[in-house]
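STRUCTURE:
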């Protein structure tokens, strides 16, 4: 049996937190007079906290002092943490536990590759922190997705060559990062947005054990 590296994004892939990032960014944007739609939010998925605020300010053509920037970003994170505070295992997305269990029972290596600085605390809340052999999050990287740093570090931690790694991602930036890293990219979400991915599924319920087996077997 081959051993491959399976690297999972967190927000919007493992847990249903992408919506909380959206609510918090929308509140922030509207507080400074910038309208913010779900379509705008697509451009922030997978993007680091700082880069996200820079983008929102650019869209609204607004310049802020360093202090105000910091104040807003702190407030956004507090709002976000307010949403995730009471998160329980029921916010793990459908069939994620089945996929993790299948891969582990077939001796595959699992890693988390997330832009979030809150990744470890969220994984603890939903009791998945011990499922990943390697965790690379927003505290461990200097270059945000679409830069491949986060996935390359995860592959290095797993000691699996990038070409033998598979990435599950809900963001276009993440799919681009996986492709640049030379990994197999699997989009979770809307195929029109994630069209650069090697495969796209609307969620994990659509990913069969047979498909996972095929990924493991392909050299
Ligand atoms: C990504 C999310 O996983 O993490 C982004 O898709 C978020 O929406 C980014 O901005 C950074 O997360 P955090 O929790 O450090 O603000
Ligand atoms: Mg995501």
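SEQUENCE:
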């Amino acid at each position: 049996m081959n051993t491959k590296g399976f690297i999972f994004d967190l927000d919007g892939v493992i847990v249903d937190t992408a919506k909380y990032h959206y609510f918090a960014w929308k509140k922030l944007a509207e507080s400074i007079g910038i309208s913010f739609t779900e379509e705008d939010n697509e451009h922030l998925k997978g993007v680091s906290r700082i880069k996200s605020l820079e983008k929102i300010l650019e869209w609204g053509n607004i310049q802020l002092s360093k202090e105000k920037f910091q104040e807003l970003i702190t407030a956004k994170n507090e709002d976000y943490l307010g949403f995730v505070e009471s998160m329980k295992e029921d916010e793990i997305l459908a069939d994620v536990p089945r996929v993790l269990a299948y891969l582990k029972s077939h001796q595959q290596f699992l890693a988390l590759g997330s832009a979030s600085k809150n990744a470890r605390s969220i994984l603890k809340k939903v009791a998945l922190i011990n499922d990943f052999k390697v965790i690379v999050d927003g505290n461990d990287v200097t270059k945000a997705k679409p830069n491949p740093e986060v996935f390359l570090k995860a592959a290095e931690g797993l000691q699996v060559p990038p070409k033998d790694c598979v990435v599950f991602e809900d963001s276009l930036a993440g799919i681009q990062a996986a492709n640049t890293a030379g990994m197999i990219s699997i989009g979770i979400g809307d195929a029109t947005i994630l069209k650069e991915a090697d495969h796209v599924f609307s969620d994990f319920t659509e990913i069969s054990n047979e498909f996972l087996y095929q990924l493991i077997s392909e050299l």
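REMARK: Residues 9, 11-13, 18, 45-46, 170-171 surround magnesium ion (ligand 2) (CB under 6 Å).
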